[in-house]
Amino acid sequence: MFLATPAHAEGYLLDGNFGIGSGLEGGDTGTGQFGWRRARLRITTGMDFRSDESQAESWGFRAFAEIEKRATLGGEARYERWLSHNVGAYGGVIGVVTPESLFGLTTGMDLVIPFGKRAGLFIEPSFSVLPVGSDLPSSGPLVWLLLSAGLKLGL
Amino acid sequence: MKSTRAPRFSRQTVVRALFALLALCVLGLTQLLGSTGCSSGAICYRNTDCPYASDCKQGTCVRRTSSEASFAGSSSDDDATAGELDASQTPDAN
Predict the structure, then answer these.
(1) How do the domains of chain A map onto residue ranges?
(2) Which CATH code fits A12-154?
């Protein structure tokens, strides 16, 4: 957080990030029992936008690809609130768009360990519930408990 | 009279506590992943756990019926009766 330099004269700040993540995936297989397993490994990339007049809040966009089994492509839009320079929390919508669809809500935390003036390592635990989509074999939602980490750069 | 004492917990202390909480979460997740409570990879939770032209039904991958497969643009060798197990998948022993 606050790693970016002003992108334009209007005072918008931009952070880019790239990381990997995994964790736990839970769901109902259709047998009525809720089970857990390791979530597929995913790579994520995205950007955070914020105004220099209100640096404690930002809007973030992420694209991710699950790279195990049948690869999938998805995205996320989130509102972030920063409690300090290095700690923030967010909430938003998340979804997979291909080859099957999956949509839901997500919330999580962002912790940034700064490296120099414009770079940092981000660690991001998140919790997502995805109740809608053609990727679900039953009416029960899919749950993701994920931990992502990677590089954050001020652009 | 107003107190001039510093806040009980500094911001740095709060951030350190959050990092400690995160470390605990990671340990918890690791423990959960290593425990036997996690199902094996043989059970499917999503349709994309299954190969192309197969769907996840009750935790097992089953090949789509011919009508579904042709609707999805699959080849004719996908012809199979409904509920037949996909040859490439084995139901979990549990």
Answers:
(1) 12-154
(2) 2.40.160.20
